[in-house]
Prior knowledge:
- The chain is mainly alpha-helical.
- 74% of the residues lie in helices and 4% in strands.
- It has 9 helices and 2 strands.
- The protein starts with 9 loop residues before the first helix and ends with a helix.
- Mean pLDDT is 83; it is low at 201-208.
- This is Cobalt transport protein CbiM.
- It is found in: Cell membrane.
- Keywords: Cell membrane, Membrane, Transmembrane, Transmembrane helix, Transport.
Amino acid sequence: MHLSEGILHLPTLIGCSxxxxxxxxxxxxxxxxxxxxxxxxxxxxFFVAGTIHIPLGLGSVHLILNGMAGVFLGWTVFPAFLxxxxxxxxxxxxxxxAVLGANLCIMGFSALAAHYLFRPLFSPVVSRTKLICAxxxxxxxxxxxxxxxxxxxxxxxxxxQYAELIYLLFISHLPVMFVDSIISCGVILLFTQMQxxxxxxxxxxxxx
Length: 208
């Protein structure tokens, strides 16, 4: 989901931008030549998923896939999402430059939560059931976490003024959570067959 410009007030925007800048800087430090291709792949997937959207009140509804990306990328999800969100703003006017930091916090920290919750399921020998649980769980945490962060920012900034919008965002994203779960399971299972090193590598890097 993208929060639109003109919703959040300046103090909230500045605070979100500061937090997002620190997260991006930390993520860049963890990038190297081995992780850049995977980051580019999920940044592109996140960009494409967000281009097909339905405007809804002060935000929008679209596929997110942030939980799946977070499981693979960890902290490096922040620079990846920054590029995707920036391109969506430039080419499609989704969100806006002023609210870029807030949208990055919404997407990035929920993705990071999925990473720390479900990366332990990836190991050299992992069952199909665990991979499916990781796919479903990462989608629920990714979408649900993004909703919670967006709701917190809206409530912090506008109080009960945005109560109906927050309720609408939660209801409208239930189908998104379902579709994200299916796609996430498919991608994780596909990586198991085609590039299992990506799963094991992510877990090792996160533990280092």
